[in-house]
Design goal:
11 helices
């Protein structure tokens, strides 16, 4: 039961970071700097999120049987609790989980754990592969599609352009009010200088933010900066 509580806390922390990172980051006024700022935001957001999950992984290592089938040695998992586990041991656990999933490919919970494990280890291409196996089993989950988009972004140089944005669009077709997907979709649009779309996506978040909420002013500030960049681009096109 403790393992499930820890997992729930880790995933809730992950979701919370994905909601706020595109809105808390500072948007530069210089268009040249603005072009790279969203990538920096992706890296910071995912890095913070994975820090939560890393804490979860290390909390779990005292009871590895909760994660993976362990060989019966008669000693139980207590031997691992003293002094924690080494990186090599953690890698071994993840490798055994991956091997088990080849024999049990319909294990949704196992694929979720493998995804998070690869992300924690910084092995994003392998995490993307695991995500695709998971999404084949649960194709219409907007939460998973949103998280998948972030991992894809990390695997392609910290950019949400292309397939990550397509995953976000799919999440929003399933749930048009998905806050994390709206926030990231706005950032993806901002990254490619589509400021009107970024503004539209972030305004949709405001529809569900109370008028007196502190975060509202932050969102409105980012919208105002995107509006300024959009106006600057229009003035440039209208010039001689």
């Amino acid at each position: 039961m403790t393992a499930f509580l820890l997992a729930a806390l880790a995933l809730m922390s992950l979701a919370a970071v994905f909601v706020v990172w595109p809105l808390w980051r500072t948007v530069p006024d210089d268009p040249a700097e603005a072009a790279v700022a969203p990538r920096r935001g992706v890296a910071i957001g995912l890095g913070t999120a994975l820090a939560f999950f890393t804490a979860f992984m290390y909390a779990m290592v005292g009871t590895p049987a909760a994660l993976l089938p362990q060989p019966s040695t008669g000693q139980g998992p207590a031997g691992n609790a003293a002094g924690g586990m080494t990186p090599a041991q953690i890698e071994g656990m993840v490798s055994r989980l991956a091997q088990r999933l080849q024999q049990q490919p319909d294990d949704v919970a196992g694929w979720r754990m493998l995804v998070r494990s690869y992300e924690t280890l910084g092995r994003y291409p392998q995490a993307v592969d695991a995500w695709r196996r998971l999404l084949a089993l649960t194709p219409d989950d907007p939460d998973l599609l949103t998280d998948y988009a972030v991992t894809l972004g990390m695997s392609q140089g910290q950019s949400l352009a292309g397939e990550p944005e397509e995953a976000l669009n799919q999440a929003l077709r399933l749930n048009p009010q998905h806050v994390q997907a709206l926030a990231l979709s706005g950032s993806a649009a901002y990254e490619r200088a589509d400021y009107p779309r970024a503004i539209a996506q972030w305004r949709r978040i405001l529809e569900n933010v109370p008028a007196d909420a502190e975060v509202r002013a932050s969102i409105e500030g980012q919208i105002a900066k995107a509006q300024a960049l959009a106006a600057r681009g229009q003035n440039g096109r209208a010039g001689p």
